[in-house]
Recover the amino acids of this structure.
């Protein structure tokens, strides 16, 4: 369902108040102690909309750093399992950046691949995403280079574009329409369409100038050049620290561990993990197929820009630039993608993906 | 800089080393560089954004760097202390590395941030630093530098924390450590975290829970701090690397202070000075042994 | 039930194959699961010891035998050592069946050659019994199996059973120096014995599982015998966790071993990067 509306700043405050009163958790970018992160708010004035890109991505709200998978309890030789909930209380996330909203739709691919990850989809179902179009954050942004953009609506339920007095609202999904319908006092007739369009154009120009590549060309080159010497030096400055994976909205690798609580009970949990660590692929025999940082860094690039799109269509990256900002060693994904895009294409015969 | 580049070029041309590990201007700021051919020595820079502790690339857990061959590493005085620690702990032989010392007047907090050194931009660890050049080096380059801008350094921040009542201090650290996602960036960037198998990665038994809940995070951070006590040189890279912005340097500085008080040990870039871990004196304090 | 929650199984039987290899027979606690559980030869599962974690093993029993599953393992790490501490009657968990399978239906009418080494007999054993339980559907069946020493041979009683069948050609071997004084089988590395036996490749498929070095030297022998790469099957192992393609750990280039494998033909393997 499509349609446009206008949300004034005052009505936005009313919307947050109404939602909070009805028991819906509202999240927004919040500034605390010099950091901006997505956090719980009760009042719109607590939110830092139009401020810096939140340091950690939105994925923590859908795929927490640690979460229980089930609990067990032993008595004698018998074991009983206690399920964890897979339905969640409704939440609205306001002020999501387009790069973060898109990551949710991108990850739906792997999370629904044959086996449906109900923890992920349970949270997806419970959440309504109110994205606010971004003016472009800084020179590390490259959302438009990966087929998205500072005003992309992928993954969003409503797309808000800042205009005078509030936001021009574009209804993107049925869930977004339902939210608008449920709060008729907050959303008024559309206003500021031209101003919104101007904002979007300017933002696209700004981000577009950071990096221009053809992701299909990059993917084709990666598919045919796994052993290429291009990767030889990439692991040199890389510490294998995994900071990139932790701030990345689309990195989703995880580990599963049993945590006993006493002798007879415990919780099986999953937690974030990264292909960048040495022990990620080590066999019980001690053999490690990715024995140093060169193949490990290569895996990061390959997975994001060839393997994932080959399986699910979307590049496993939304161009938010956090990896490049967070890397303590100055690895720069914009630089790497630019270099990959400029590699001469000699695709071996028969290589289709 | 000319001096540094000429020296690097000469070392490579003469085959004294196979790689010079220094800094270069990257697309978004200064970053580590690995120069293997003499012509590329022109890329090397040293300026206020040369923040990184390059000694970490001597950490034996980096086979892709070791494969390059004998390195020369450009080191500030603080970085040289890490090299000294690696030598002291037999992870590196002095003759296996060429050290190019640089005279340093402080660096900024972020290698991709503003380059101007002011009390606001200067790295906290530089604020009370007295060493303008390393003693541990084979060559020394660069012009004499003034002392870094002074400001509220780590010591002052620690003092503020220590003035808090215990419950407030606990609330502060619980709040900070709850954000830890156990990426282990702090460990991976540290020159002195060189264990082949970190205690946190051991599963039989699982000494430290790997989950990033507060309990697991406390176990990890406290263990790492204790394993660094008496060894950490205070380079602050752990804090800079942390994607969650946890003030790790405060923890390490606190333990550094404790070790200094008890064992009269100051961080030194002389590998010959024994460190409290791995050495004892007959007059070491021992009132805690009952 | 969320996909990460396992079925509960009881250990019905424990058999030590060698000093360090053990076989478990597991029965689903829930009758409905026991009655409806089905899988194909080559698939694997994630086996839980609650409190220690999960471990990946192939299902070593044949899909033609219902009501239970078997796995064989060597105690090398945290979970496998925890399994060794369990007794008959204890409870474990099982998630599966996961992965692809040997295309046994496609082999109807063909000769089947099974080649395995050491602890790699379990993933082949499931498909050996699958074929033997439907023996009339296939032409000649040849089994070539070797281990370092006589003690290291697994499924010894089944080897005796296979060897005594007139419709199976069984050749067992041990590495030179691994024989006992009363050893009656061959002496030599598996690839050498395959060459010696020289099974015909006419309308035949080969299933090869073993340590990487054995595979490395066996594939050229099969090539010389005329087996084309798309009629040679093997299984790959890689470090796994979720088993269902989500945790990102087991991929080799574009292929997830837990979803696109673990069964691969030599032809498919040759397109993969050498990162395993």
């Amino acid at each position: 369902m499509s349609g446009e509306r206008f949300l004034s700043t005052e009505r936005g405050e009313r919307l947050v108040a109404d939602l909070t009163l009805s028991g819906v958790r509202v999240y927004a970018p919040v500034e605390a102690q010099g950091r901006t992160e997505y956090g719980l708010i009760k009042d719109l004035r607590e939110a830092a909309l139009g401020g810096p890109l939140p340091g950690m991505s939105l994925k923590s709200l859908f795929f927490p750093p640690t979460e229980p998978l089930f609990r067990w309890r032993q008595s004698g030789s018998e074991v009983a399992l206690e399920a964890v909930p897979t339905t969640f209380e409704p939440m609205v996330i306001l002020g999501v950046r387009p790069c973060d909203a898109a990551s949710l739709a991108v990850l739906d691919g792997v999370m629904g691949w044959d086996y449906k990850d109900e923890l992920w989809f349970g949270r997806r179902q419970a959440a309504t995403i109110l994205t606010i179009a971004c003016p472009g954050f800084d020179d590390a942004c490259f959302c438009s280079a990966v087929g998205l953009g500072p005003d992309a609506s992928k993954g969003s339920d409503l797309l808000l574009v800042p205009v005078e007095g509030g936001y021009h609202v574009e209804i993107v999904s049925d869930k977004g329409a339902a939210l608008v319908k449920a709060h008729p006092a907050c959303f008024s007739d559309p206003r500021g369409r031209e101003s919104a369009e101007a904002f979007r154009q300017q933002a696209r120009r700004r981000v577009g100038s950071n990096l221009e590549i053809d992701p299909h060309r990059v993917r084709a080159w990666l598919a045919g050049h796994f052993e290429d010497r291009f990767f030889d030096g990439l692991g040199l400055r890389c510490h294998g620290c995994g900071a990139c994976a932790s701030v990345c909205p689309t990195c989703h690798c995880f580990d599963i561990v049993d945590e006993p609580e006493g002798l007879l009970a415990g919780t099986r949990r999953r937690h974030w993990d990264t292909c960048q660590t040495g022990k990620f692929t080590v066999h019980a025999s001690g053999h490690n197929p990715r024995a140093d940082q060169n193949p490990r860094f290569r895996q990061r690039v390959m997975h994001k820009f060839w393997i994932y799109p080959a399986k699910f269509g979307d590049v496993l990256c939304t161009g938010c630039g956090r990896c490049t900002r967070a890397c303590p060693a100055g690895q720069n994904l914009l630089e790497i993608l630019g270099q990959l895009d400029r590699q001469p294409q000699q695709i071996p015969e028969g290589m289709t993906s | 800089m000319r001096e540094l580049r000429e020296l690097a070029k000469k070392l490579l041309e003469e085959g004294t080393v196979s790689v010079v590990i220094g800094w270069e201007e990257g697309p978004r700021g200064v970053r580590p560089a690995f120069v293997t051919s003499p012509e590329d020595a022109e890329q090397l820079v040293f300026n206020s954004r040369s923040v990184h502790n390059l000694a970490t690339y001597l950490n034996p857990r980096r086979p892709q760097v070791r494969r390059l061959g004998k390195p020369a590493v450009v080191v500030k005085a603080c970085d040289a202390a890490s090299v000294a620690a690696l030598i002291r702990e037999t992870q590196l032989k002095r003759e296996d590395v060429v050290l190019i010392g640089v005279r340093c007047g402080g660096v900024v907090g972020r290698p991709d941030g503003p380059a101007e050194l002011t009390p606001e931009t200067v790295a906290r660890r530089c604020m009370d630093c007295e060493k303008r050049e390393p003693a541990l080096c084979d060559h020394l380059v660069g012009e004499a530098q003034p002392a870094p801008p002074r400001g509220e350094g780590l010591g002052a921040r620690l003092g503020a924390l220590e003035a808090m009542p215990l419950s407030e201090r606990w609330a502060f650290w619980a709040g900070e450590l709850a954000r830890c996602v156990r990426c282990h960036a702090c460990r991976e960037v540290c020159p002195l975290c060189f264990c082949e198998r970190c205690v946190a990665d051991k599963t039989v038994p699982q000494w430290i829970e790997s989950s990033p809940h507060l309990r697991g995070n406390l176990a990890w951070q406290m263990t790492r701090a204790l394993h660094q006590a008496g060894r950490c040189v205070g380079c602050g890279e752990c804090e800079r690397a942390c994607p969650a912005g946890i003030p790790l340097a405060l923890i390490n500085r606190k333990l550094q202070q404790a070790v200094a008080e008890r064992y009269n040990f100051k961080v030194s870039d002389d590998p010959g000075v024994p460190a409290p871990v791995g050495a004892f004196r007959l007059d070491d304090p021992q009132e805690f042994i009952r | 039930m969320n996909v990460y929650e396992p079925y509960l199984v009881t250990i019905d039987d424990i058999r030590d194959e060698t000093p360090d290899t053990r076989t478990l027979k597991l029965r689903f606690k829930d009758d409905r699961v026991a009655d409806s559980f089905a899988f194909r030869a080559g698939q694997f599962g994630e086996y839980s010891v609650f409190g220690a974690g999960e471990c990946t093993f192939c299902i070593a029993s044949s899909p033609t035998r219902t009501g239970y599953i078997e796995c064989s393992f060597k105690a090398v790490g945290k979970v496998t050592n925890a399994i060794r501490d369990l007794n008959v009657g204890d409870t474990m968990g099982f998630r599966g069946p996961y992965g692809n399978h040997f295309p046994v239906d496609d082999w109807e009418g063909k000769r089947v050659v099974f080649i395995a080494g050491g602890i790699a007999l379990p993933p082949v054993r499931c498909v050996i019994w699958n074929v033997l339980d439907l023996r009339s559907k296939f032409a000649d069946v040849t089994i070539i199996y070797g281990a370092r020493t006589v003690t290291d041979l697994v499924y010894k009683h089944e080897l005796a059973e296979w060897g005594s069948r007139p419709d199976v050609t069984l050749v067992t071997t041990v590495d030179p120096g691994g024989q006992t004084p009363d050893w009656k089988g061959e002496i030599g590395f598996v690839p050498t014995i395959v060459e010696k036996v020289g099974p015909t490749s006419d309308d035949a498929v080969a299933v090869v599982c073993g340590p990487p070095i054995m595979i490395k030297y066996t594939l050229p022998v099969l090539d010389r015998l005329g087996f084309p790469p798309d009629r040679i099957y093997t299984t790959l192992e890689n470090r796994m966790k979720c088993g269902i393609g989500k945790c990102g750990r087991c991929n080799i280039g574009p292929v997830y071993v837990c979803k696109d494998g673990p069964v691969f033909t030599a032809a498919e393997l040759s397109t993969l990067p050498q990162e395993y």
